Amino acid sequence: MHLLLSGIVGSVAYGLAGPGSDTDRLGVFAAPTVAFHGLRPPRESVVTTEPDVTLHEARKYALLALSGNPTATELMWLPDDCYETRTGFGDRLIGIRSAFLSAPRVRDAYLGYASQQFRRLTTAPADVGGRRRSAKHARHLARLLHQGRVLYATGVLEIRLADPEWFRAFGERVAGGALAEAQALVASAEADFARIRTPLPERPDEEPVERWLLDVRTAHLPH
Question: What is the CATH number of domain 2-100+205-219?
Answer without folding.
Answer: 3.30.460
